[in-house]
Amino acid sequence: MYSSTLETPFNTYKELHLEGRYITNSMIEPLLEKLPKNVQVTIEGTSVKHQSIYCITLGSGKKRVLMWSQMHGNESTTTKALFDLINYLQRNPSILEACTLCIIPILNPDGAQVYTRLNANQIDLNRDAQALSQPESRLLKDCFLKFKPDFCFNLHGQRTIFSVGETSKSAILSFLSPAEDESRSFTKTRKIAMELIVAMNLKLQKVIPNQVALYNDGFNHNCVGDAFQSLGVPTVLFEAGHYPGDYKREVTRELIGYALMIALYTISETELEGKGYEEYLMIPQNGKCFLDVIIRNVEHDGHLIDVGVQYKEELVGNSIQFIPEIVKLEKLDGFFGHKEYDGCGANVLNMNGSMLSVGNQTYSVMLNNAKYSLILA
């Protein structure tokens, strides 16, 4: 029923005021002020540094979905997708007739401000579900208890290192139905979350075939997803990964938004019971087979090796810069580069003529006395 609706062109609902990797409260606040009257915006509390933590509530349906983004401040792709989703729902309101949505767009505004995973007290909020030592953690738990959701969506972003299994396909989107216990039992709650992921994967395979994976389901009762799942609420982890060449995560935001729509239409039109969860188990696990750049077959200290480069994300002004860092100097069989070059046996050195070493941050290397740029194009 919903497939034709999902063909709505992305440019008709994309939130144009949000772009790139750096998304903060100051960027979403003007958008919150412009939301229509049928959308309720509240301040549920404040962060360690007293920044407002907003909650958006919309819809009138009986099925209640709680979702939160930027629990890790530097994982902003899903925040962009949430505002795209809100725009979409204003034009396609059928979901809102069946569901009520409670959305926390930036749970960790202090981390978002300085572009870091942790909050201002250097705590990982996704390891604070039991201690509830941080105001942001307590706020999320209070929203959970007050809203009484039927489903939870835990929205994150993952690094460029992730592959679909041990293949040369990057994991553009990854999902997880978190475990409830050490034995990772297939409880009914978990199976319902699995069924929802299967529904998303079925549609996504038509768009990004063989580029959807499952995140590791090792149990940690300190993780929010594991904690909410164990309280009997089907919880899905969304991980926005790397689409080839898309370091600003603009293509990925569209795909995450698409996945959210599939999930919400499925919830609105189906009584999920955990059927078909076996198909979830057939989705490949995340591997860690990617580097951003690999220069293969270069001479280094008398040996033929490969050079592995990973981009380090640094906040400069109001944008994220990608700084090339040497992370591996060895044969990289079994690894894949988002970009790969063949050094053809050439000698490789730093720009000052010194030997490369792991940890070097350099925008270029010398190959047989020729400059070789590592800058992200």
TrEMBL record:
Domain of life of the source? Bacteria
Under the heading InterPro entries, the entry gives: Peptidase_M14
> Which Gene Ontology biological process is one annotated for this entry?
proteolysis
Molecular function GO terms recorded: metallocarboxypeptidase activity; zinc ion binding
First and last residue of the signal peptide:
none
**Which CDD domains does this entry report, sorted A to Z?**
M14-like
Which part of the chain is the Peptidase M14 domain? Answer: 14-377
UniProt xrefs under PROSITE patterns: PEPTIDASE_M14
State the family it belongs to: Belongs to the peptidase M14 family.
Protein name stated in the entry? Peptidase M14
What species is given as this protein's source?
Bizionia argentinensis JUB59
